[in-house]
Amino acid sequence: MRIVFIGAGEIGVPTLQALLKSEHEVVGVVTQPDKPVGRSQLIEPPPIKNALSGTNIPVLQPARIKDRQAIEEIRALRPDVIVVMAYGQILPRGVLEIPEIGCLNLHASLLPRWRGAAPIQAAIAAGDREIGITVMYMDEGLDTGDILLQRTIDILPADTGGALHDRLAGVAPETLLESLDLLAKGKAPRTPQDNAVATYAPKLKREDGKIDWSDPADAIERKIRAFDPWPGAFMTVSTNGTRNLKIFSATIIDLRGKPGKILRSEAELVVAAGEGALSLGEVQLEGKRRMSAMEFCADTIVTNPAAGI
Q1: Cα gap 156→172, rounded to integer Å
Q2: Domains in the chain, ordered, with CATH?
Q3: CB-based contact 188:182 (threshold 8 Å)
Q4: Which tens digits make up the pLDDT trace of 61-92?
Q5: Rg (CA), the chain
Q6: Are 117 and 200 in contact (CB under 8 A)?
Q7: What is the pTM of this model?
């Protein structure tokens, strides 16, 4: 089949690479425009564009996929199927109507649970025990289309958002290729979603990572894992001024105290939560390197003995 792949994020790279090696013909790729990245703000292409290095496949990078020119350029590629994964824009009806067979979206959740932009973080933070890849027929709603196929994996106790992202990226290619095979044979199922049990995972902002220490320790620990690497969980500390302390890992311990109060700080950085407490693992103070909480405490005491945390 003639495939147009639409995506931008790193999670879609293995799926695109699998398509390139399959019997299907990738006739074009649509991704986001190149943009400034990191502190240096150097202009870089999205990961999907980088994955096409050494190929002659046409790459379209419209600022808005709903613009008429973008729609006509996609139409000119005459796809049988459009495959979408982690693109970041909602496809308009003009694009959805282009392919001969249909538009498929690969979503990193077990729909209808966690529709929206941040399903991986939401699943870990909520304490879900499993997640997966859903292949669905696209409509004009937000992840509301009928389900073609789902593949489930367990969420492990130590999973971070980054680790789970990478495992789901590895599950997606086989799930898509099986879906395309079912479509080609005319055996693809089409199961409507139950909207009554749908949940949503909105796009995250950096400030969403601020920890509320009145929450139970287990909820905070899940948030720390879920938000690693983005947007990062953090607390505010006072050491040579007020700065954010990013937290990469923590262990739940059975101590009690006023939420947010430091219970130990010299050999171990322990912070009381609404229920229980957390012993912090790796941390990073704004403008400093990543280090263990013990190193942070020692550094804080040495550089500013009077500093309060």
Answers
A1: 18
A2: 2-201 (3.40.50.170), 206-303 (3.10.25.10)
A3: yes
A4: 999 999 999 999 999 999 999 999 999 999 99
A5: 22
A6: no
A7: 0.94
